[in-house]
Amino acid sequence: MTTVQTTVPPPPAAVRPKVVARAGLYGVLAVNVAVVTVFFVQAGFASNALIVIGRLLGLYGALLMAFQLLLVARLPWLDRRIGMDRLTSWHRWVGFGLLWTLLGHAVFITFGYADSSGMDPVSQLVDLAETVEGVLRAVVALVLILVIGGVSARYARRRLAYETWHFIHLYTYLAVVLAFTHQVAVGTTFTASSFATAYWYGVWGVALGAVALGRLVLPLWRNMRHQLRVSAVVPESDNVVSIYMTGRDLDRLPARAGQFFLWRFLTKDRWWQANPFSLSAAPDGRTLRLTAKVAGDGTAGLRHLKVGTRVFAEGPYGAFTAMHRTRPEAVLIAGGVGVTPIRALLEEVEGHAVVIYRVSTDRDAVLYDELRELAQAKGAELHLVSGPVSPDKLAPHELVRLVPDIGDRDVFLCGPPPMMNAVLGSLRELNVPKQQIHFERFSLAG
């Protein structure tokens, strides 16, 4: 049964939450770069320019490593405003910057000391590792980061199972610990003053504390509080199933339409698998629902879940919500099973909405009856667009035909990556302002 949410959300904010969060992150990084530079200057310079550059790169590398932890901490305040996929993208690029910074640190330090001692660089590195406390740990940390960077490259990432990539990625935390102990042992700036020492302990404490809070404390606390269990398993088609869940105090769960969770169904054969699925209905304080398409052995087992199965859910995650509205009217564009967050959003969005649902054939239109009922209740327009990929039925002229005033609306988009890329291209051609386009690719870091 489809219900219509009657609570009117606040009007769009004058300053977008995404802008505030992004500016805050950039500002925090810039301030810390300045502080690190000041501490470095106060500590004095070595006589060898190569060593000076190497030490500065090492400090910046330590700061980037702490910033990396903040990006993957899954803190609700950042996630709701920026979104998991953007944070993941930033994590990726900061990670490659970190790799080159630490590699530069190792190269400049090694060649700098080799220049002073007259040894060849390889012998100098071996000598440092054998005679200076913490250097061997730093070498191991660098090797781990190089391996993690290698498997995170696009070519390797596409060929590795997610579980394999994730397991290798977990060694990042070991690299962080090794790098920190190296910094404590030999970092001249670390011990240059009590203020510098307190600062670095504070940086690492905040970074590691953020990870512990977002990745461990909050998920455990929320699951202990809400005690989710499967209440119904409903096949929607031959390869799509909806899972309904109930629990305690769900009206206190800070979830919104458009967000997703990492779901673990605690059965003997599934407890170790965490799959990201969007809510396919707006949270009503009593139940949660996800709708998933069979895409492998893991999702195929969903239709065999038993009522009463315990559920461990991490989240909610994502900035694909009405919180980021900038216009009073909206266009909701869904492709395939990407309709799930769109269907949930339709319950929550206020103002006139146009829903465009793109599928290969009419029988692929999952949840279409619910969409039609909900659209009628809310006075929204619903367009079912079916047919082969070519010709493009969501090309610019087709979008304008369906929504003549699309440039004056917020656009929410979710679907398969090729379809999303094509629609984003169409929106650019139509000069729809970037701040009015909302999408999420549901990618995860770390």
Automatic annotation (TrEMBL):
<keyword id="KW-0472">Membrane</keyword>
<dbReference type="GO" id="GO:0050660">
    <property type="term" value="F:flavin adenine dinucleotide binding"/>
</dbReference>
<dbReference type="Pfam" id="PF00175">
    <property type="entry name" value="NAD_binding_1"/>
</dbReference>
<dbReference type="GO" id="GO:0051537">
    <property type="term" value="F:2 iron, 2 sulfur cluster binding"/>
</dbReference>
<keyword id="KW-0812">Transmembrane</keyword>
<dbReference type="GO" id="GO:0046872">
    <property type="term" value="F:metal ion binding"/>
</dbReference>
<feature type="transmembrane region" description="Helical">
    <location>
        <begin position="134"/>
        <end position="156"/>
    </location>
</feature>
<feature type="transmembrane region" description="Helical">
    <location>
        <begin position="23"/>
        <end position="43"/>
    </location>
</feature>
<dbReference type="InterPro" id="IPR013112">
    <property type="entry name" value="FAD-bd_8"/>
</dbReference>
<keyword id="KW-0285">Flavoprotein</keyword>
<dbReference type="InterPro" id="IPR013130">
    <property type="entry name" value="Fe3_Rdtase_TM_dom"/>
</dbReference>
<dbReference type="Pfam" id="PF01794">
    <property type="entry name" value="Ferric_reduct"/>
</dbReference>
<dbReference type="InterPro" id="IPR017938">
    <property type="entry name" value="Riboflavin_synthase-like_b-brl"/>
</dbReference>
<dbReference type="Pfam" id="PF08022">
    <property type="entry name" value="FAD_binding_8"/>
</dbReference>
<protein>
    <submittedName>
        <fullName>Ferredoxin reductase family protein</fullName>
    </submittedName>
</protein>
<feature type="transmembrane region" description="Helical">
    <location>
        <begin position="168"/>
        <end position="186"/>
    </location>
</feature>
<keyword id="KW-0408">Iron</keyword>
<dbReference type="InterPro" id="IPR001433">
    <property type="entry name" value="OxRdtase_FAD/NAD-bd"/>
</dbReference>
<keyword id="KW-0274">FAD</keyword>
<keyword id="KW-1133">Transmembrane helix</keyword>
<keyword id="KW-0001">2Fe-2S</keyword>
<feature type="transmembrane region" description="Helical">
    <location>
        <begin position="49"/>
        <end position="72"/>
    </location>
</feature>
<keyword id="KW-0560">Oxidoreductase</keyword>
<dbReference type="GO" id="GO:0016491">
    <property type="term" value="F:oxidoreductase activity"/>
</dbReference>
<feature type="transmembrane region" description="Helical">
    <location>
        <begin position="93"/>
        <end position="114"/>
    </location>
</feature>
<feature type="transmembrane region" description="Helical">
    <location>
        <begin position="198"/>
        <end position="218"/>
    </location>
</feature>
<keyword id="KW-0411">Iron-sulfur</keyword>
<dbReference type="InterPro" id="IPR050415">
    <property type="entry name" value="MRET"/>
</dbReference>
<dbReference type="GO" id="GO:0016020">
    <property type="term" value="C:membrane"/>
</dbReference>
<dbReference type="InterPro" id="IPR039261">
    <property type="entry name" value="FNR_nucleotide-bd"/>
</dbReference>
<dbReference type="InterPro" id="IPR017927">
    <property type="entry name" value="FAD-bd_FR_type"/>
</dbReference>
<feature type="domain" description="FAD-binding FR-type">
    <location>
        <begin position="223"/>
        <end position="323"/>
    </location>
</feature>
<keyword id="KW-0479">Metal-binding</keyword>
